[in-house]
Amino acid sequence: MVLLTVSVAACGCRGHVHQITTVPAAQRPVAKDATANELLDRYNALARAVQTVNATVELKPTAGSKYSGVIDEYHEVKAFLQASRPYNIRMIGQVPVIGKTVFDMASDGQNFEVSIPSKNKFLAGPVSLDRPSSKPIENLRPQHLVDALLWPEIRKEEAVLFEEFNDEAARYYVLTVLRGGYRTEILRKVWFDRADLHVVRMETFGPKGVLLSDVRFSDWQGVAATNVQSGTAPVSEYPRTIRLERPHDEYRLDMSVEKISLNEPLEAERFKLEPPPGEEIVHLGDAAEDKKP
């Protein structure tokens, strides 16, 4: 009787309860199918293939968040970026048009150096330094970009979970890589857009589930054939828009790739950064430096 009453009411409301919308075939989203192994192979193929990155990019840093109560947005900076496996990276930021250097930073995976001409300072310290600055923009480290540009391979011995995730925007596959030890924890999550199976997001976690970084990739475009040092197939596509968020470091970095070349030979000397004459050298992590207010 209840169902009959509802049915009669629906028919008498001139379609306000029940409405059918037909989506044209050209506008219907596509959701491709793939297995966990196929996604692993797809991810690792690109991770192995990209050995070096030489790019001209536009950077827009944003420091702080609504949780801290202050959000600082900085002007765009043109940067020349070079990265080489396993952990080498060098990035020089300049003011557009006039070409004045804003920063020059480098890292070899063990230590990092940052030259800031406007402050006449040269910062140096170990990559393992875990002492967030009260000024979020000073937490930006060159090695934070390494995993976003040179993806770590998912090894065969690592446990990987496979799942689907759907929302109003799209449908995704998610690979969750676990770390073992005393307690199993999440190490990394890799998101694939099922529309084209491109990697669109990569989350990296620290101990106890702390979200260290959240990187989003979009605007995948073709890459000209280059010399591939690894001996694998040439890289056909690479993302042109990358957003790196470091929630505990309180900063976000939006990177738009203007020009890119992959797997060019990069000499080790390119990643060496010496203090410019006259700059004050600050060794972060020193006991004396830690006592400063």
Short synopsis of the structure:
The protein has helices spanning 2-11, 36-49, 146-149, 287-290, and strands at residues 52-65, 70-73, 77-84, 88-94, 101-107, 111-116, 121-126, 160-166, 171-179, 185-193, 198-205, 211-222, 237-246, 251-262, 280-283. The protein is mainly β and 293 residues long.
Describe this structure in words.
This protein starts with a helix and ends with a helix. The radius of gyration is 24 Å and the shape is globular. The chain has a domain at 51-150 and 210-290: outer membrane lipoprotein receptor (LolB), chain A (Clam), CATH 2.50.20. The protein is built from four helices and 15 strands. It has a 15-stranded mixed sheet that branches. By secondary structure, it is mostly beta strands. A hairpin with a 4-residue loop joins strand 13 and strand 14.
CATH topology of the domain at 51-150 and 210-290: outer membrane lipoprotein receptor (LolB), chain A
**Which bin fits the share of residues in helices?**
10-25%
- Structural class of the helix and strand makeup? mainly beta
Strand content: 35-45%
Using the coordinates above, name the CATH class of the domain at 51-150 and 210-290: Mainly Beta
Q: Return the average pLDDT rounded to an integer.
A: 82
Biggest β-sheet strands, sense, barrel: 15 strands, mixed
Radius of gyration: 24 Å
What CATH architecture of the domain at 51-150 and 210-290 do you see?
Answer: Clam
Q: So what's the overall shape?
A: globular
